[in-house]
TrEMBL record:
GO terms for molecular function: ATP binding. NCBIfam families: YifB family Mg chelatase-like AAA ATPase. Residues 405-501 form the Mg chelatase-related protein C-terminal domain. InterPro entries: CHLI-like, Mg_chelat-rel, Mg_chelat-rel_C, Mg_chelatse_chII-like_cat_dom, P-loop_NTPase, Ribosomal_Su5_D2-typ_SF, Ribsml_uS5_D2-typ_fold_subgr. Residues 193-398 form the Magnesium chelatase ChlI-like catalytic domain. It holds the Pfam family ChlI. Signal peptide: none annotated. This is Magnesium chelatase.
Length: 515
């Protein structure tokens, strides 16, 4: 007899509908599986055979053929164990084929018939809903994750016999109640705040501008001047995640196996801070079976690279394409995998190996050593960083001040206001932030009065800007104007933007020329 079961495979971070077909027919007894399978999927026949026997079922002494289609998609992982077992039982007459028409089944089988959790349950449920299915059967540990997707019934199962009973007698398993709304409505709190930072007005302001327009930012200065402290607090001033953002980010963490059963959603903006010894594959993603890397795990949030020049050159150069396109594509012999990479890059570095350049009373590095150190950051990568701000040594008086600075909540209100202006401005377009403006948008939304154009010309000639530097200056000016609630870019906005761009020329002007 023939039977089929609907399941879902994972490609990148998205689910793909997979049809598991079983044919149990007369012939020489055997068990064969086809359909472009990985070794993990091929091993399913041993797990399924043993799990069926230990659950009280025996494979008939017939020829069993399993096909996973479509054949041009490589099947990975252990989530096909359960649908394979159910398809065999249906083809053997233990389950009605009509009970399998409107459901999706996914799960790993233990040898005793228990159903174990799988990665990517959120993507599996989303794909099941997209395919128009009414029910999605998942391992019990994955139920809270699956319930995030609305308008589809999610049923958790813990044993093979339990699932068979439910398929033959619907209603046997009590349906779980939704948890998505309660999780999303939980207050998003942080254990750090901008109010803990005293002084550093320039770094605070530059950070606010960077977050408001989603501009990449580089902090440069001696050790112990607040660069890392500011960076780690950036998520606290970013707008809260929308439901759509929450689901998209959670999908990445789901396929990576980083979601816990207790917290099925990512409710905070991601903050990833890999060590400078990270490999290119760990940063970009990859492996024999490609998985998301740090730049994808930072999507929707912040990727912080501390000690920027200490990263391997071939590692940080990987950032160039994702910073432009907001995604990364990893190609393997058996297919291509696309992962999101829409993050805000935040980096910090010392100005030289000892950290004190250009203070020659403390710095002992030669000019050649300084240029070599700064030269570890290539010009193409530097061109993708909008804001460069200098941190200075904190005075004793600033350390002794008891009162802190402005709170994260207060700063976040201004950032959210500026983000709303941008959302309205770019409505119906493929961009969302000022940092993503192209030439056409710059010409439309960054118009200047005659006197302001003359002032911009002075900045352009004084700082010897390139065409790219000119566009960056206008993008930052547009964000500063949005923070001020100004429809028109004013002279003071241009002046502040010029100040946030000038340090690139100060440090790298002798190496690459002005930006």
């Amino acid at each position: 007899m023939y039977s089929k079961v609907h399941s879902v495979g994972i490609t990148g971070v998205e689910g793909v509908s997979i049809l598991v077909e079983a044919d149990v027919s007369d012939g020489l007894p055997g068990f064969s599986m086809v359909g472009y399978l990985s070794s993990q999927v091929r091993e399913a026949q041993d797990r399924v055979r043993t799990a069926l026997r230990n659950s009280g079922f025996r494979l008939p002494a017939k020829k069993v053929t399993i096909n996973l289609s479509p054949a041009d998609i490589r099947k990975e992982g252990t989530a096909f164990d359960l649908p394979i077992a159910i398809s065999i039982l249906s083809a053997s007459g233990h389950i009605s084929s009509s009970a399998l028409m409107d459901c999706v089944i996914s799960g790993e089988l233990g040898l005793d018939g228990t159903i174990k959790p799988v990665h990517g349950a959120l993507s599996i449920t989303a794909a099941a809903k997209k395919a128009g299915k009414a029910v999605c059967f998942l391992p019990q540990e994955n139920v809270r994750e699956g319930l995030v997707i609305e308008e589809i019934k999610v049923i958790g199962v813990s044993h093979l016999k339990e699932l068979i009973q439910e398929l033959n007698s619907p209603g046997y398993i009590k349906e779980a109640s939704t948890v998505a709304d309660s999780v999303i409505e939980e207050p998003c709190s942080y254990d750090m705040d901008f109010s803990e930072i005293g002084g550093l007005p320039l770094l605070r302001r530059a950070t606010e501008v960077a977050v408001a327009g989603m501009h990449n930012i580089l902090y440069i200065g001696p050790a112990g001047t607040g660069k890392s402290m500011i960076s780690r607090r950036i998520p606290t001033i970013m707008p809260s995640l929308s439901l759509e953002e929450t689901i998209e980010i959670s999908k990445i963490y789901s396929v990576s196996g980083l979601l816990s059963p207790e917290m099925p959603l990512v409710v905070r903006r991601p903050f990833r801070s890999p060590h400078h010894t990270i490999s290119p594959q760990a940063l970009a993603g990859g492996g024999r079976i490609p998985k998301p890397g740090e730049i994808s795990l930072a999507s929707g949030g912040v990727l912080f690279l501390d000690e920027f020049p200490e990263f391997q050159k071939n590692t940080i150069e990987i950032l160039r394409q994702p910073l432009e396109e907001g995604k990364i594509t990893i190609s393997r012999m058996h297919g291509s995998y696309e992962f999101p990479a829409n993050f805000m890059l935040t980096a910090s570095m010392n100005p030289c190996a000892c950290g004190f350049y250009p203070d020659r009373t403390k710095c002992r590095c030669s000019e050649q050593q300084v240029f070599k150190y700064l030269g570890k950051i290539s010009k193409p990568l530097l061109d993708r960083i909008d804001i460069c701000v200098e941190s200075r040594m904190i005075t004793y008086e600033e350390l002794e001040k008891k009162e802190g600075g402005e709170s994260s909540a207060s700063i976040r209100l201004r950032v959210e206001s500026a983000r709303k202006i941008q959302a309205k401005r770019y409505e119906g377009q493929k961009i969302y932030f000022n940092s993503s403006m192209r030439k056409a948008e710059i010409e439309e939304f960054c118009k200047l009065k005659k006197s302001d154009r003359d002032f911009l010309k002075q900045i352009y000639e004084t700082q010897k800007l390139s065409a790219r530097g000119y566009e960056k200056l206008l993008k930052i000016s547009r964000t500063i104007a949005d923070l001020d609630g100004s429809e028109q870019i004013q002279k003071e906005h241009l002046a502040e933007a010029a100040g946030l761009r000038s340090l690139e020329g100060k440090y790298w002007g002798g190496i690459y020329g002005q930006s």
